[in-house]
Amino acid sequence: MLGLVSAKTTPNATPLHNSFRQNDNHIHKNGNKTPSPLLKRTPSPSFSKPKTKPSKKTLQELRIDESSLDNPDLGPFLLKLAIDTMASGDNQNKALDYATRASISFEISSGPGLDLAMSLQVEAAIYCSRGRLENAIPVLERSIEVLDHKSGSDHAMAKFSGFMQLGDTYSMLGRVDRSISSYESGLKIQIETLGDLDPRVAESCRYLAEAYVQAMQFDEAEKLCQKSLEIHREQNAPASIEEAGDRRLMALIYEAKGEYECALEELVLASMVMIAAGQENEVAAIDVSIGNIYVFLCRFDEAIFSYQKALTVFKSTRGDEYSPVASVYTRLAEVYYKTGKLRESKSYCENALRIFSKPVTGIATEEIASGLAEISAIYEALNEHGEALKLLYMAMKLLKDTPGQRSMIAGIEAQMGLMFYKVGKYGEARSSFENAVAKLRASGDAKSVFFGILLNQLGLASVQLYRIHEAVELFEEAREILEQECGSCHSDTLGVYSNLAATYDALGRVEDAAVILEYILKLREEKLGTANPEVADEKKRLAVLLKEAGRARIRKGNSLVNLLDSSS
User: Fold this and answer.
1) Short-list 161, 171, 81, CA closest to 133
2) pLDDT recorded at residue 553
């Protein structure tokens, strides 16, 4: 049978564990919003406290009238009670009861309109605060239905608010695709109402760009971030704080796309703004991001210098137990491993673990879990697989199996599966990969590059367990996703092609396998030239298959320049 290719073994392959560090960008999120493995988010510009008209009736009169929900004074009174009770935090059940009855009263007394929409949005917010996210969805959908954004700016902005709140709720449920769809609908209404250059539109563009980054749709994220940057440069003074925020997000997008020089340029510009504004901690955070880019560019001395600068600031402003200090220790451990200084690498890992094992108050469990997973990857590279697995299990225990955290748990399970696969525990590897795939499917994240690579790894584990038919289905699905997201010439896509050819060969589908290998060889010849060792290996594999199929290779004419080295 032809050899198999792991996506992890290709030089430019996307790693299975999370490559986006949550602490690098310092984009903060709403406390109720669970972050994805990719980045933390700012709160959406969605929900604002509705203005309710004070009732002229006394409390006793309203209590008497409460039996009749068509009383026009009852809805505003109950809505005010709901908001006040929710703000006090005393009895959320009572707040929910007030809000529900307010919505019913508005529905009966005044029908669809602004008051009903506001009441429904308050009701949904209370559902979310109590963790009843599924209950909030139909309430928010109803709040959007009862409004006509063409009836005035108040109606339009309330509808925008409903869409953004709905997007946040879908995001907390892990339904990334529906979340983005809701944000897009809200942004469209906001632009129609406020115009293209309103600063509030810039805020929404950046928020939607962050959502696209979470979904690994980097081209769309770049367009929206660029629009936000243009608005801020038009509306604000030169080198504003808002512009610096846009540039940091743009740097994250460029990093994800592998455009490291562009990312470095954006970070340097953002750093200059923050230095001028006297934002010492923000400058240190940007220094960490700059260090990350230097690592990608193999400029390790400059990376260490950037990390040490950030470490000095974090220690002096927050103390030695501050979580970003642990994050910098992890970055230093990684760069020292890459430069062959294994003793120093392990020492920095231990320093980071000391902070994560006894976290100070206020560190989110997701941040600790992410830190443990990153340290685990370094221990794995040091061939200390037992310690690496122990840290991953610790990270899993910190996370709850809630919809909003499933993507992060899936990333950790994928990392565990890869580790099991490397040490030959194929059953455990397959189980971990299967769990990760199931969680990502449930989260609506079944079209990303990461998901395609994960399917490839699950297929490889299935082959090792002689489940060839199952592996074929997995490789075919992975091929479809990676062709769509990366293109047919990407190294990850070619790896899946090769694996699919090998499984076709194992099933006796020699002709199908030969067709795929001919395609791979054609691409490699065009890209690498005929003298490249990879091309020679593919030729040998193809020759074996063609001999079995009893035919010669189908060739198309190529210029001598392309055959030798098309990349030049």
Assistant:
1) 171
2) 43
C-alpha–C-alpha distance, residues 102 and 78, integer Å:
5
CA 178 to each of CA 192, 449, 535: distance values in angstroms, whole numbers, following the listed order: 22, 19, 43
Least Cα distance to 286 among 248, 233, 241, 313 occurs for: 248
In degrees, rounded to 5, the angle at the alpha carbon of residue 239 between the alpha carbons of residues 234 and 245 is: 90
Residue range 537-547, pLDDT digits in tens = 666 666 665 66
Read off the pLDDT of residues 47-56 as tens digits, 9 standing for 90 and up: 444 444 444 4
- Which of residues 519 and 354 earns the better pLDDT score? 354
Structure tokens at 387: 């310690």
Of 204-208, 471-475, 522-526, the poorest mean pLDDT is in 522-526
Contacts of 382 (CB under 8 A, 6+ apart): 337, 342, 345, 346
Question: Is the model's pLDDT at 130 over the cut of 50?
Answer: yes
Q: Give backbone dihedrals phi and psi of 428, rounded to 5 degrees, phi first.
A: -65, -35
User: Around Cβ 272, how many Cβ atoms within 10 Å?
Assistant: 15
H helices present in 27-91, as ranges: 59-65, 74-88
Within 215-322, where are the H helices? 218-235, 241-256, 260-276, 280-296, 300-318
Report residue 142: phi and psi, to 5°. -65, -40
Q: For residues 566 and 561, give the distance between their C-alpha atoms in angstroms, rounded to a whole number.
A: 6
Q: Report how far residue 522's alpha carbon sits from residue 518's, in angstroms, rounded to the nearest whole number.
A: 6
Tokens 């592998």: give the residue.
258
- Predicted pLDDT at 511: 83
Residue 209, token pair as written in the block: 């760009």
Q: 33 — phi, psi (to 5°)?
A: -100, 125
pTM of the model: 0.73
Return the H-helix or E-strand segment holding 537: helix 533-549
Residue type, 71: N
Cα distance between residue 39 and residue 56, in whole Å:
48
Of 31, 33, 30, the residue nearest 133 (C-alpha): 33
pLDDT tens per residue across span 188-239: 999 999 999 999 999 999 999 999 998 888 999 999 999 999 999 988 888 8
Q: How far is CA 517 from CA 2, 141, 496, 520, 521, in A?
A: 10, 50, 11, 5, 6
Nearest Cα residue to 86 out of 102, 71, 73: 102
CB 478 within 8 A of CB 459: yes
pLDDT digits (tens, 9 = 90+) for 294-345: 999 999 999 999 999 999 999 999 888 888 999 999 999 999 999 999 999 9
